[in-house]
Each structure stands twice: as C-alpha cells, then as structure tokens.
Amino acid sequence: MLFGGAQIQFLKGSIYQETILWAGAIAAAFVYCAIRGLIAKRNFSTGLVAVMASLAGLGLLTRVSAGLALYVSTGLLVLTLAWPPTGPLRDRVPQFVRGLASKRTVVALAILLGFATLSGMVNYQRFADFRIYVAYMASPKDIDRQAAYGVFNTQRLWYGIVYYFFPIWTIIRPDGQFLFSKFEGRMLGSVEPPPASFLLSDPLLLVLGGVFLPRLARERLLDLRAAAALMTGLLIPVLLILMFEGMAFRYRMEFYPLLEFTAFLGFYAICVNPGRFSALSRGRLSLILIASAGFGIIYSHFALFLYKISPFTNRISAPDGWVDLYVVQLKLIFPSIAQRLHF
Prior knowledge:
By secondary structure, the protein is mainly alpha-helical.
C-alpha cells in the first residue's frame, strides 16, 4: 500500500490535488481508528470515538463528500454501540436510551455538531448567494444541464461504474468520437483522462475485501454491527461520485477509505485462523496476493505517469487515438526530450 494505490497515483501538483489528498489522509486516519476499535482493542472507548468524531469534523471542513462519509459512519457507530446486541426488546429500549445519554455518545455528538456549525458558518460566508457563484463558475450549458438532470443523478450510475472500473468509454468510434460521447455530452459536464480502473491499480485491496469478507461474516470474527455501520458511511461518497455530473481521475480517492477498510478486515480474516487453509491453499493465496500487490504497484506508477501528462480539461478529444494524444502531450511538456526522440 505504501508503494502503490492512492499514495502514488494522485501525486500531480495542483490545488485540486491538495484538497482531495488532505481529505484522503484524514479518512485514512479515521479508518485506522475504526480498525483499532474493531480488532486491536475490541472496544470503542470514549476517547477513540472522540478522535473519530474530530476526524469527521476535519473531513467536513476539507471536502464535504469525504466528511459526510465520516459523519454518517460515526453517527451510525454511536447508535449501534448504544443499542444492546441481545435481550428482549422491552429491556433493550431503556438500555438504548441510557446509551444515548452516555458520555461517549454525548461527546461524539457535541464534537460533530461543533464542526458542522463551524463548517456552516464558513460556507455561508463563501456561498451567501449561490446564484452568483453558479453564474461566475458555470456556463449557460452547465446551468441548463444541472437544471435538467441535477448535480447527482442515478442515470449516471452505470457510466460511473464504467469510468472507474471498466474504462471502455475510451474506445474511439470510426467517426472519431468516444463510445458514449452522446451520453457524455448530454449528462456530464466533464470527463477527464487518463483511463484507469481499480481492477488494475488496486487488485490487492479488491481481492482481500471481496474474497474474505464473506468468511468474516460467516464466522463472526468481530462486531459485525459496528463494521456494517462504518461501511455504510464509507459507501456514501462512492455512490455520490458514481452519480456526479463530472468524472475525474482524482475522484477515485473517494473510493479508497471503503476499499482499504474492507481490505484490512479481509486481511484480518486470513490471519486470525490460518490453520483452516491447507498448505496448497496457503501457497496459492500467497501467490495471488503477492502478484496482486506487485501488479498494483507497477500499474499505479504507470497511471501516475499518464496523469502527469494528461491535460486538465473538461472535454478531451482524441480523433487520432490515445497514442497520438499522449505524444502531443509529451511534446508540450518535454519539448527537448521529444525532439531528441524525433517525436
């Protein structure tokens, strides 16, 4: 994870990157606290929940989508911890009420409310009249599209999955247009390069999370209620980005808190009882994990290279193909090297 994935792919100097990298770092710290509570401590103390709530507040001040995920995760977590796991309903309700009045819940909610108030004050001053902001930032076409389809729309969900996982949108038709250019022009304000897929950049996270989480659930190796509460919150920015009016490489950062959280749980499921695997299974599993990690590291650096030479643009055009597009970009960025190579 240190040499691939989110730590490598987004290292392109820009103000856009700075914001989303800070949000990713805060979310990663939150995931660390969540794993610590679920596995290392087997308990979410008042202090740990207070730290998680503070990270959620910092996330909200940094990037709303990331902060929303941490807010919902923290809120669902304190509700889950307050609700007794066993016992008749008539006994659990009074215990739940007492749990809501506990120090842990009160401290967490106070911190969340404090940061939400601060964020509201800052953003009210910034966007006191949202119409002026829209008129300044958006073109008439953007305003018309948002009025017709909204900033978030479920009709974009399939395209978001294609963009982030199966980038067939990059196929260029005989007329020089991209495969889904008609849909892009109608529904999306931006589609930014480079082509990318989590299947290529992060196979290790997907293997760990996808293959071993079912085992975690079957054998109840930890507090599944708390894990489900945290995962529900972390899923929110993923859904928002899949339905957003713009598709961008850097928005992939929104997926990583959920991917890394599930991957850590999957890794724990492997390690907690390795004797259940035969020697042959352990050997195959090791080979798969090593190959996934190695491939992800290599591809992450390749994706970073493509990202560095990709234009920051709402619309890209590659009538002569992707190779020609990037050759032109290389000429613009490294003219002396391109001249020596006779590009």
